[in-house]
Every structure is written in structure tokens, then in C-alpha cells.
Amino acid sequence: MECLARPYGSLAAGSWFKLIGGASLQNLPTLSNLALVYTLAGADCIDVSADPAVIAAVGEAMVHGHRLAGFSPDAGPFLMVSLSDGDDPHFRKAHFDAERCPSDCPRPCLRICPVDAIAAGGIEALRCYGCGRCAPVCPLGLIEFRAWQAEVATIGALLADCPVDAVEIHTHRGNLEGFKRLWRGLAPVLPRLKLVAVSFPDEPGMREHLADLWEVMRAGPLSDAARSHIVWQIDGIPMSGDLARGTARASVRFAREVSTWRLPGYLQLAGGTNDASVELARAAGLAIGGIGYGSYARQLVQAETETGPLAEEPERLRRAVEQARALVCQLKPHLQQEGAAPWLTTTPQLR
Q1: DSSP 234
Q2: pLDDT, tens only, 186-206
Q3: b/e map of 302-321 (b: 16 or more CB within 10 Å)?
Q4: Where do the 4Fe-4S ferredoxin-type domain residues begin and end (predicted)?
Q5: Strand 230-235 relative to strand 266-270: parallel, antiparallel, unpaired?
């Protein structure tokens, strides 16, 4: 696999690695740690919620990572924000009234939550990313979900002063008018974007829907760079990659079909991706730009990223980056061949 300049070159080489921070996740300490770790590990893109506080924290962590590793300014990763053109499970928060939860409840929700967002007093909204695992196990059916996303009409103004490189729009069949409204709302930032992605599930009529979206996109005020770097994210089983290796099969199976649609740009796997995804994609002979990793990539380093600022603890940071780098190297074997990055054998000084 040819090693090209990141991050555009990674798409061309099929080695694009995207960290999915969670479209609804707003836990700033954790997201800062994740951004720092995966910047140093070699990620090409870090995708987070369209929350200015999240964007600022993640952007700062990425800058620290650049300085520590000695990256050139154009070496990536891109900072991407995720949006939705309608109802979507990625853009929600779980909620329940803690006063209605009986004291003798065994609380299976506590055990199943992957980010410890549930406590005796209810759900900590900043930690919740809407995975949906808690609701089915609640014995009283108390847990519900509430949509979470910025206002479509003002999203462009909200992002205008944020250091955003790329935007990803989650879509569903039948949401064409919603997509058009969101696209109009993004008008202030579209000309400066470096890349645009569209995330979509396996639904009947999706091929025709994406063709309609492309007509809207190609008529918009996109930069030449973004227009020539459209990423189509194939969403297999959303927010499930940490559950079992087999979840990786869904996006690969769907990608075989999507690859016949001749979409302009690059295909990227997501939704259930994990350490089995690269092997499965290669076995299937898929021509993809890369892979986006969400819950699996986050859980891989969770022991380090959930216990205080990594920028202040070099040894913990080193351990986390080594763990993350093992996953990144599946797509970028040249990093493994190059050996440990120089900073891994010295004492990092971020501050």
C-alpha cells in the first residue's frame, strides 16, 4: 500500500482512518484525550458533535498532538462535525425520571452502559451518546430518548467561527427536503470545507436517494477540494463495534452492493467496525477509501482516556497511543514498518 501525504492521500491509498467521537457525545475531558491519542496514532479525521465547546476542546488537543509529534500543518487529521437531515439514532440522548426508579431495581442499565453515563440520579447527558442499549433492559420501561442536534437554520452561523475542516451529514431515505434545508443552513461554511461526507444506512431506495442528494451537493458552493473529496459512509450496524467482532460484517456486506452504484468520491465503512473490518474488507476485494471506527476505537483506550488529562501523564499517554496505533496500523502498515514514533521513546512535554 502506497504511503501518501495525509489525509487526502490516505483516501487515495485506501488507508483513511477516521475516529468517530460520537455525534451526541459531549464529554469534553474524554473527547480531548481521544483526540490527542488518535492524532498521535496517525488518524486522518476526527469526527465529533457540532457543539462549539466540543469542537474547541478537540481542536486544542489536536494542536497539542501536532506539536508533540512534529507534524506539518497539512498532515491532518481533519476535524469533522456530524449533522443529521432528520431523525437519526446517532443524534439522541437517553433520559429517565430517577424518582420513578424503585430502590430495589437491579438496574441492569448501569451494567450495560458502555460509558458509565447512568447513575442513581439519572443519566449524565454529556456522557450519553445515544447507543440505545439501556432502554431494552429497563424492567419498567422508563428509559426514553430525546433528539439532540443544533438548529438547522442557524448551524452555519454556529460553525462559522469554529475550526471545522469537514462536515458529515447523516441521512435516511425520504429526507431529501431535510437535506436541502440543512445544506442551505451550512451555506456560510461550505466554501471553506476540505471534505464532505454523507452517512447512510441500508434502506430500500437508498441508491436513488443518494443520487438526489448529490445533485443538491454538486450545485452548492463547495470548494474544489471538497467537491473532489466526497466520502460516502456506509453505516452497517450503528454504534455496535465494541459488542462483537461479527458486527463488522454488515458494513462490508452492504459495501459490496454500494460499490456497484458508482458514487462520485470514496466509500468508507462504519457502523459495527472493529479489528475485523480490514481483514473482511480485503477478503471481499472492496475498493474503499478507508474505515471509520467509533465505539470500538473509543473502548480500546477507555481505561486511559476516562481517568484524567493524558496531556499531564506521559506514561499513560504513551500506553494509549500504542494501543490506538495497533488499530491504525491495520489500515496503515507503513506506520508499523517505520517502527515507534520518536516521541514514544522520549518523555512527551505538551504543556
Answers
A1: E
A2: 999 999 999 999 999 999 999
A3: bebbbeebbbeebebbbbbb
A4: 92-118, 119-148
A5: parallel
Which residue segments constitute the domains of the chain, with CATH numbers given?
A: 8-88+152-345 (3.20.20.70), 92-147 (3.30.70.20)
- pLDDT tens by residue, 279-296: 999 999 999 999 999 999
Q: What is the pLDDT of residues 48-61, one digit of tens each?
A: 999 999 999 999 99
The strand pair at 195-201 and 166-170 is best described as parallel
Alpha-carbon dihedral sign for residues 87, 93, 99, 100: positive
Cell 507534524 belongs to 71
Give strand ranges (E) for 3-143.
Answer: 16-20, 45-49, 78-84, 92-95, 118-119, 122-123
Neighbours of 334 (CB within 10 A): 14
Q: How far is CA 282 from CA 202, 288, 330, in A?
A: 21, 10, 11
- CA 172/CA 162 separation, integer angstroms: 27
| Burial call 126-153: b when 16+ CB within 10 Å, e when fewer | bbbbbbebbbeebeeebbebeebbbebe
DSSP assignments along 300-319, one per residue? HTHHHHTSS-GGG-HHHHHH
Whole-structure pTM over 0.70, yes or no?
yes
- Residue 21 grid coordinates: 467521537
| 335-339: long-range pairs with CB below 8 Å, 24+ | 335/42
